Amino acid sequence: MSFKGFYRNIIKKGDKYWIQHNSEYFVDCKTLAEALYERDRLISVGWDWDLYLQLPHTPNGYIHIDLPPFDHSPSYITLIKEHWMVVSKGANPKYYGTYYTEEEANRVRMIYNGRIMHKKAKWKVQRKMNNKTRYFGAYYTKEEAEERVKELEENGWD
Question: Cα–Cα distances in Å, from 147 out to 50, 66, 77, 78?
Fold first, then answer.
């Protein structure tokens, strides 16, 4: 069972839990209970750091409860589904859409007298950096994509 909603905005890096919102890191915490508490405080002030610093200290309600397992990490890998693109014939093709079934693509192709470009499923590696999504390639297997992410993390995403 996944508890991503419960643990939203919290990621684990090494032995610390980080609170992240819109690609911005706010606080690192030693325990998951501490991260949940600080995350809730940031949400209560709309992620405004100055207001967060002015918040009075209150007891951490997460310390004395059994927390669900934290079994997720940020995924920089997404599956690009197998799809069919319909484009017009000729030197400057006009794009008529992307379809996830070959039947749909064929219907549209016949209407516009176009051609179909078939794209196989791939695993795409991307990460949001400096408020922009940076693309790091597409791979035919998830293992290849995971290997690339590991390599990128070791090199600071350079």
Answer: 39, 34, 11, 14
